[in-house]
Amino acid sequence: MDVTEMSNYIDIEEYDKNEEKHAYYIDMMAEMSHILCKHRGDDAKPCRVLELGAGTGIFTKRLAKIPNVQVVAVEIDVECFQRLKYKMRNHPSVELVRGDSCSYYQETKFDYIVSSFADHHIKTEDKQRYLQNVQQNLQPDGLFIVGDEFLPPHNASNHKAWEAALNAYHNHIIAIAVEQGEEILANLERDALKSGLEKTGDFKVSCSQYEEYLTSAAFTFERKKIGPLDRDDVGGVYVYRSWLQE
């Protein structure tokens, strides 16, 4: 597992206690859940869900509450995984795997694959391999549902433009946290910005870059912006609903 674990640059205890206060995060998770439940339909037949990058289980606990769902939650960071195990100790419908999202595979494919605030931790050079692995694990009629943070449009080959885009997004989130008096959350976001600038564990891209990866992996997609809805210059939080092309 050649990765930089999040616990190397983020205080996992503080993250777990405060991340749900992150701007747009609750609304993002609600939209992801809505997409899954709407696609299942009224009969809510049994289904299998693979969660990649489950972290400390913030979204996992929501999945565990959906009736008739079997969840496999994959997380690579050892500290995150310990918290995930503790949270899910009373949820027999959730199987926990300490593994790599780029290589985890089951022969029995999943109806849904979900990722919440995790895809941006995949290294740029691994993103295509990651999406190919998603493709291999997904039922032909299944959905890949992603909620994540995206940078504003920029020239990714221009270092200054990329750096400005990264600062624009994170400083927007930091400003909201400071305005709300959430200094711990603001500091967590500063640490995330630092890891992005240093390319040590945070590899955010713009929507157009991400959509190039999806298209290359044979996905068709729809996206919905969660926030901010009143400006386009800082990027934002989006939910992607993707499916395999026939």
Topology at a glance:
Layout: H1 12-18, H2 25-40, E1 47-52, H3 60-63, E2 69-75, H4 78-87, E3 94-98, E4 110-116, H5 127-137, E5 138-150, H6 159-179, H7 183-197, H8 207-216, E6 219-227, E7 236-244
Parallel strand pairs: 1-2, 1-4, 2-3, 4-5
Antiparallel strand pairs: 5-7, 6-7
Protein model, in words:
This protein has 246 residues and is of the alpha/beta class. It has a single domain, classed as Vaccinia Virus protein VP39 (Rossmann fold, 3-Layer(aba) Sandwich), CATH 3.40.50. The protein has 8 helices and 7 strands; from the N terminus they run ααβαβαββαβαααββ. It has helices at residues 12-18, 25-40, 60-63, 78-87, 127-137, 159-179, 183-197, 207-216, and strands spanning 47-52, 69-75, 94-98, 110-116, 138-150, 219-227, 236-244. Strands 3-2-1-4-5-7-6 form a 7-stranded mixed β-sheet, sandwiched between helices. α6 packs antiparallel against α7. The two termini are 33 Å apart. The model has no long low-confidence stretch (mean pLDDT 95).
**Major β-sheet, in short?**
7 strands, mixed
Any idea how many domains? 1
* Main structural class: alpha/beta
Radius of gyration (CA) equals: 17 Å
Order of helices and strands: HHEHEHEEHEHHHEE
CATH class: Alpha Beta
Distance between the termini: 33 Å
Mind telling me the CATH superfamily name?
Vaccinia Virus protein VP39
Q: What is the average per-residue confidence, as pLDDT, rounded to a whole number?
A: 95
